[in-house]
Amino acid sequence: PRESGLRFGWIHTANTDFMEILTNKGFVWSGGGLNHYTVCLMKYIIENGDLDKHLTFTRETLTSRANALISTLRTNDKENILHFHEPKGGYFLWIKLPDFITGKEFVELCEHFSVKVQLGSVSTAIKSESKTFRKLLSVVFRV
């Protein structure tokens, strides 16, 4: 069954031929027809096994990146000032900072070295100004 309200996200591609075909369709111009197209596309991807392949690739990639990050942190944190648990899943590594540096200061330091981290408060649905979230960082393993 095709559900008109089902939304999967967006189309991200460098394939100009595909984009040319897709963008020249009236159902795309009108702003209301991509839901049906996306549902059919997802049905095909699920049935032919491409979704499973993509999920396996994504999990392996993120696991590899998480392991590299954890190894780098452990190797370079000689004074053992950063505290974290190895993630068993999910998308973030949560790091508890020592008292002598704020999350904002650490984010700025990381940016100086072209490393992207976020304050913990950005990565949680809990709205809190407590010290807990100001002292937590979330590191994203990007695909």
Query: What general form does the structure show?
Result: elongated
Distance between the termini: 32 Å
Over the alpha carbons, how many angstroms does the gyration radius reach? Answer: 21 Å
Note the quaternary state here. single chain
Calculate the mean pLDDT score and round it.
Answer: 76
Report the total helices: 6
In total, the number of strands is: 3
What is the N-to-C order of secondary-structure elements (H for helix, E for strand)?
HHHHEHEHE
Describe the structure.
48% of the residues lie in helices and 8% in strands. It is mainly α. Strands 1-3-2 form a three-stranded antiparallel beta sheet. The radius of gyration is 21 Å and the shape is elongated. The relative contact order is 0.10. The model has no long low-confidence stretch (mean pLDDT 76).
Structure at a glance:
This protein has about 140 residues and is mostly helical. It has six helices and three strands, in the order ααααβαβαβ.
Task: Describe the structure using short key phrases.
143 residues, mainly alpha, three-stranded antiparallel beta sheet, 6 helices, 48% helix, 8% strand, elongated
What layout of secondary structure does this protein have?
Elements: H1 16-23, H2 26-29, H3 34-48, H4 50-76, E1 92-96, H5 103-112, E2 118-119, H6 131-134, E3 136-140
